Amino acid sequence: MEYRNLGHSGLMISEVTYGNWLTHGELVDREQAVACVRAALDAGVTTFDTADVYAQGAAEELLGAALEGVRRSSLVIASKVCLPTGDGPNDRGLSRKHIMESCEASLRRLRTDYLDLYQAHRFDGTTPLEETLIAFDDLVRQGKVLYLGVSEWTAPQIASALTVIRELGLRSRIVSNQPQYNMLWRVIEPEVVPLCLREGIGQLAFQPLAQGVLTGKYLPGREAPDGSRGKAGGRAPTFIGRVLGRPLLERVQDLIPLAGECGMSAAQLAIAWVLRQPGVSSVVAGATRPEQVTENAAASGRTLDDAVLKRVDEVLGDLVDRDHGKTAQMMAVKPSWTSTTP
């Protein structure tokens, strides 16, 4: 495993971050989840990403239990706040009340005294940015949070936050953005990436495998394989359904020989591709089995030359989505390459 600075901060994170979005508390049982975390640690992964809303807190609880006994200073634990965690009017958003209460709840579930990285899970247009950023700054001053980040914010939203931070003279800075980013979904490239590069904000790219589609395990015209997210319960089939379609699945199959030429699996090629992109500090990848964790981690340190990048673009062609207007709309907007025919 290799390590990189998170943006222009001094915080070193593993090139592959272990994420537990649709796995812990939903897709796998406790024993399997702990085995995946242990496999990540064995592979040199130091960075773990979660959120208060994942499985309504169960994901944080499971991650906290799985990491118990590991030297805390050797870990980088990241969580998020904003999305609904209850039915009350203050159980969502980026108000001071919700941020403070959610942070305390996350610390309790994760069994830790502080979060290395606390991220605004989405932008909250109903709360003044000043209120949000002062609350985050106070958490840093209290020692409960070390670094601040955002997730799926547009370039104008990030720019506005940076302006407020400077105008208020806050000491805490935004060091990371966590967007969906992979070979197919490149909507952050036109606006978000250039801004973040100028401002020293690193990308923590999630869904580098496009919900597993870029592994090549979903075959055109066939049912999703047993044990995959496409066959799982809970919310997983809803999300994976957004990225399935015969034209896409056929193109992905054409990437497998290219991965073989590079001495990699298709999954490793997809992760290495993201790590090759400007401004990326780490990829956030989940897993349902320990062997997947090991395979993903092995993509760290792999290099891709320009000829390989060009061939990826040639294979995927017009299926690549670069529409910057879809930033932060991942939950609501289907990619342009989605079809209704599996």
Automatic annotation (TrEMBL):
Gene3D superfamilies attached to this UniProt entry: NADP-dependent oxidoreductase domain (3.20.20.100)
NADP listed as a keyword: yes
One Pfam short name: Aldo_ket_red
NADP-dependent oxidoreductase domain residues: 16-315
GO molecular function: oxidoreductase activity
Protein keywords: NADP, Oxidoreductase
Top-level taxon: Bacteria
GO cellular component: cytosol
PANTHER family: HYPERKINETIC, ISOFORM M
Family: Belongs to the shaker potassium channel beta subunit family.
Protein name: Aldo/keto reductase
Organism: Planomonospora sphaerica
Organism lineage string: Bacteria, Bacillati, Actinomycetota, Actinomycetes, Streptosporangiales
